[in-house]
Amino acid sequence: MAARLATPTGRAQYRQRSALVEPGFAQIFQRFGRHLNYRGRQAVDAEIKLLGTVHNLTKLVNHTPKKHS
Questions:
Q1: 30-50 residues labelled b (16+ CB within 10 A) or e (exposed)
Q2: What is the pTM of this model?
């Protein structure tokens, strides 16, 4: 992975990931905390997916369309 990230293409892709993915994780951690309630791979996977779904649904519900002038 280090060799892949050392290339110019790898660096560009990682910069794009940090701009798209990291804010979502930060928002989820801020709202729900950093600790999970369940243990085990399947339970943790389900909990993370549930938190992401709740986060996205909250964004949809609170979304106000832009008014075009």
A1: eebeeeeeeeeeeeeeeeeee
A2: 0.59
